[in-house]
Amino acid sequence: MNKQTIVADTIDMVKEKLNNEGSGHDWYHIERVWKMASKLAAKEQANSYIVELAALLHDLIDDKLVSSKDEAVQEVEYWLEGAGVSSSDSERIMDIIQTISFKGGNGRKLTTLEAQIVQDADRLDAIGAIGIARCFTYAGSKGDVIFNPELSVRESMTEKEYREGPSSAVHHFYEKLLKLKDLMNTETAKQIAEERHAFMEDFLIQFFNEWEG
After folding, report:
1. What's this model's pTM, rounded to 2 decimal places?
2. By residue range, what is the domain housing residue 162?
3. What does the pLDDT look like over 107-161, one tens digit per residue?
4. Where do the coiled-coil regions begin and end (predicted)?
5. Number of structural domains, the chain?
6. Which CATH number is 44's domain given?
């Protein structure tokens, strides 16, 4: 099976799986990450095939979306094998999607340009106008309020602690989103992140002005 067909089949599968997801990790998030990752791969001269498949599959093992990460990893591995992806390419893809998350990978340094690109594309979708919209969508999906001034910012926490502990949408800017600009890997992503970061800062200024009345 040729690579274009494998990518097209993967798109269909992921779209069906995440189409009605309501926390901001839906198909349209995947589509944006996939398109951005493809652009970054072209700019940075990376392996576009590996980048595209990893970008398309990166949220299918996210423990915010699955009840068992181990089972989800197995399902993705079975999918890649059934789709005709070589074992060496499958290993590279699985390594990427298990190490790129903000809290994932146990602090492992990304060792490939392809992993850096997928991580950058995913993080770019978490900032700027889209990032703001996704932040409030995710907060609402887990029952968090828009803002609670009595809460303190949690600087260091596991993903499980974030999901289960008290927070607010606005607190999440300080716990994660405003940190992402300085965590970009590629020069192209760093440039894009500057504008999106500035937009979030402007939003927060306006938000607090309105909050204080």
Report:
1. 0.92
2. 3-212
3. 567 889 999 999 999 999 999 999 999 999 999 998 999 999 998 887 655 555 5
4. none
5. 1
6. 1.10.3210.50
